[in-house]
Amino acid sequence: MGGDPLSVVGGMIGAMTTPAAVIVDAAAYARAVEDAASAAAAYYAGGSSPMDDDAYDRLARGIAAWEAEHPDEVLPDSPTGKVAGGAAEGDVPHTVPMLSLDNVFSPEEFTAWTASLARRIGREAARFAVGPKLDGLAVAARYHEGRLTRLITRGDGTAGEDVSHAIGTVQGLPETLAEPVTVEVRGEILMTTAQFEHANEVRVRHGGQPFANPRNAAAGTLRAKERAYTVPMTFFGYGLLALPGTGTALAERLDESPYSELMSTAAGLGVHTSAATAVPDVVVETPEQVVRRVQEIAALRAGLPFGIDGIVIKADLAADRRAAGSGSRAPRWAVAYKLPAVEKITRLLAVEWNVGRTGIVAPRGVLEPVVIEGSTITYATLHNPADITRRGLRLGDHVMVHRAGDVIPRIEAPVAHLRTGEEQPIVFPEACPRCGSDIDTSEERWRCAQGRNCHLVASLAYAAGRDQLDIEGLGTTRVVQLVEAGLVGDLADLFLLRREQLLALERMGETSTDNLLAALARAKEQPLSRVLCALGVRGTGRSMSRRIARYFATMDGIRAADADAMQRVDGIGAEKAPSVVAEIAELAPLIDKLAAAGVNMTEPGATPPPPADADGEDGTPAEAPGDGGPLAGMKVVVTGAMTGRLESLSRNEMNELVERAGGRSSSSVSKNTTLVVAGEGAGSKRAKAEQLGVRLATPEEFAALVADLLG
Ligand code: IVH
Q1: Listed residue (25, 88, 7) closest to 62, CA to CA
Q2: Which of 57, 95, 139, 238 is the best mutation target for the ligand 1 pocket, counting ligand atoms within 8 Å of the beta carbon and taking the most?
Q3: Is 134 in the pocket of ligand 1 (CB under 6 A)?
Q4: Which residue is closest in CA terms to ligand 1's atom 18?
Q5: Beta strands 183-190; 282-284: pairing state
Q6: Is residue 2 pLDDT above 90, yes or no?
Q7: What is the pLDDT of residues 115-152, one digit of tens each?
Q8: Per CATH, which fold does 11-85 belong to?
Q9: CATH number of the 92-338 domain
Q10: Which of 167, 267, 370, 615 could form a disulfide with 346 if both were Cys (CB 3.0 to 4.6 A apart)?
């Protein structure tokens, strides 16, 4: 994916400001307070708020600014002086109030906060703990002698609602601690992205409306008492305190512990904390180090399996926390550094239907332009028609749009209570919007009956691309020309082109013609992996094509494979195998034609797998050919710009190199990664590798490792 992640981060943090709403008079102030209070009430009740986070922050800042000028006219409902705005109140009192956090939005505001903290405690804070601000709901979990007895929401901060019925559905919140202690664990309940998708699927199956985002889903699920089904959620602990029954020694220890130590105690008791994630809380000493850590976490945000809306910074030492104290709404020893919202509400204006190179007819939502993380979003993916139906979307709906990092923006759900009645149903096409043929609607993803021939130009231009057959001089314009002249009707026709046919075309002189013919001749020699990729088998991209080609070694081997055999390829599961086999079968005439035209159908360096057991049993997966190279058994991620001997290699070519050397290439860093090759400008992937302790190599070191293959 494009862009240097660090520069993106710099932009996100440096440029991020939420301008305050401008309030001109007392009437506007009263309206603003009313709007904020009802939005806050909806938010804390877990309903879908008519305001997104940015809009709320803007309003709250405007309210605060007006109140600063008119301190005598502050309304009781104002969100500024209260814990959690107009939260739904419960009847279980908290032993110690559950406070909120003050926000900062820029390095400058953060520096100002550290200065005010230093003033309060009479010295610089010695250490800061810096960790993710989890986007869920605060809860207090009471443990009596090691057993989880009660789960309480934050409520208004002084008393919350008993939601103990949810015990058992929250991962990371054990029903029994590792030691029989009496303590209160505080933390956030949320849904991971996967849990959210699952929850919406189940909810819709039970006739409900999908939740707009994971936060609403967690709130709604936590408070729902009598549902016919349960869906899992996840807990992250960020507080550990004594209860009336806690022994004196432990109570004193908890009181005196640095925050970082409390968290390791909690983790030791079996509670899930940020330590188990790619963005663990870390302890640093200076405000500069805090800002650096904030940037690191921001860079990792898009890749996290759960939502964060900022970073929480806390004075680590108990003595500093005590000296700083707390206000009625928020502690003075902690602050939230808010990150730009990744979700905004906007309107769905239209739905377009586009046909891709494999003939898939895909819907795309046209939005009223909305700025998310500094980019204007006008389109968002809608996946497929079934998805539109599942989400109950209508034209004109207000929708929650989600976009994080480089990920394609997606529409989560309609904001149902903002409907005016004017919304119109979304009309599904009855014929292919490109060629007018029938549409095959037998699967979730609709497809033109002409398949990849429907959008021949797109599929040929893709096949000619640098990472596939790499046919220089065959860009989209030339492909259009060839198709319109009737010279090519499929991929194989390219290899049957004759010199005089090309010369007869406009803008095709002798040189261009000879160059194109030479490029086509070279393309015939490409390895099988690239030929396979050029065919555009649905569900297989570059790396999957390489794995299939290396596993089977020949096109005949691939064609002979049934679903069981296909499943032996690393990364192909029971679901994907049959569709890959079916696609290959569908492509048989084209493959025959390509082979007859002289296109290579073998993978250099790969050997065919041994035949399956004679008794027909599924053998264990055969060793992937290529094992035994310098990277045998290694999982390698390449990031940043390559230099030196590797400078001319594209990312795809680097991945090919990794695989030829016996390794497995991957695009994301995890604890299973063995090696990260970090070139110039490597950003978040390098940061993650450092964090997880994954081995790093410069392009030069990597080149030395695979020197034998570089020739
Ligand atoms: S510490 C005294 N740490 O953010 C309050 N809070 O906007 C100390 N939150 O009420 C809270 N992640 O619900 C803390 N790592 C984290 C957090 C976190 C999310 C929530 C919490 C708090 C709200 C304030």
Answers
A1: 25
A2: 238
A3: yes
A4: 133
A5: unpaired
A6: no
A7: 999 999 999 888 999 999 999 999 999 999 999 999 99
A8: Helix Hairpins (1.10.287)
A9: 3.30.470.30
A10: 370
The pLDDT of residue 44 = 64
CA angle 443–539–490, rounded 5-degree value: 90
Does residue 83 have its Cβ closer than 6 Å to ligand 1?
Answer: no
Show the tokens assigned to 136.
Answer: 């869920």
Mutational pocket test of ligand 1: of 57, 101, 135, 186, the residue with most ligand atoms within 8 Å of the beta carbon: 101
Per-domain boundaries in the chain: 11-85, 92-338, 343-440, 451-523, 627-711
The catalytic residues are: 133
The whole-angstrom separation of Cα 74 and Cα 99 is 21
Q: 83, 133, 297, 328: which to mutate for ligand 1, most atoms within 8 A of CB?
A: 133
Going from the Cα of 100 to the center of ligand 1, the distance in angstroms, rounded, reads 7
DSSP 545-604: HHHHHHHH-BHHHHHH--HHHHTTSTT--TTHHHHHHHHHHHTHHHHHHHHHTT---B-T
Instruction: Considering only residues 32 and 335, tell me which one the structure prediction assigns the higher pLDDT.
Output: 335
| Of 255, 307, 257, 305, residue with least CA distance to 283 | 257
- Is CATH 1.10.730.10 the right assignment for the domain spanning 451-523? no
Domain 11-85 and domain 343-440, same fold? Reply is: no
Find the 26 Cα to ligand 1 centroid distance in Å: 32
Residue corresponding to tokens 């015939």: 524
541 Cα: distance to centroid of ligand 1 (angstroms):
41
How buried is 585 (Cβ within 10 angstroms: 0-12 exposed, 13-18 middle, 19+ buried)?
A: exposed
CATH architecture of 343-440: Beta Barrel (2.40)
Give 613's pLDDT tier (boundaries 50, 70, 90).
low
Q: How confident is the model at residue 218 (pLDDT cuts 50, 70, 90)?
A: very high
Q: pTM of this prediction?
A: 0.66
Please give the mean pLDDT across all residues of the chain: 89
CATH domain 627-711 topology:
Rossmann fold (3.40.50)
| Residue nearest atom 13 in ligand 1 by C-alpha distance | 138
Q: Which amino acid is at 74?
A: V
